Amino acid sequence: MAGVPPVIRPGHFPTRRKSCRSWAGRRVVVSIQVPKGGQSDEKEQSSTSTSGGATATTAASGGVTVTTAASGGPTVVNVVGGEKSSTKYYLTATPASVPAGPTTFTFKNAGTMVHEVIVLKTDTPADKLKVGANHEVSEAASVGEDSETKPGKTKSTTIDLKPGKYVLACNIERHYEKGMFTAFTVT
Question: Which CATH topology does 72-187 take?
């Protein structure tokens, strides 16, 4: 962000804006709020845009907001995941069912290791996905994801969901096998 002077007002965080492209190749504008006297931790921040417009937020030291032309607010789904033990992991989603349309998945990694959340559109029950020799499930049915998230961090991604059955899962090697998945429905 060199060369972009921050605007500082008493009681406010300076905001810096940067134009970039999402993984889908769409142009987005990122606004980064930097804490007083601090630097933004851009290594912990990411953004994603999907069809129909999107808003994605990644909570790091400051916060990143990506805005596009989406109208109205997306439905928010809070996803929490981590380890119960070395052999049993978990993933929860609240609510477990939402109406079709833009949906923001906010993933909080409550564990002690890196996790991710992939969103798979499938009629296969959550606990019956085929696991490959690499100890991961196929991502062919993926409609989006909150990529690798460090312990204690939070990432958000907005996806325009169609009606149907979905599975949310951590697809890091062996994490699905240890129970890090949950069923999800879009009406």
Answer: Immunoglobulin-like (2.60.40)
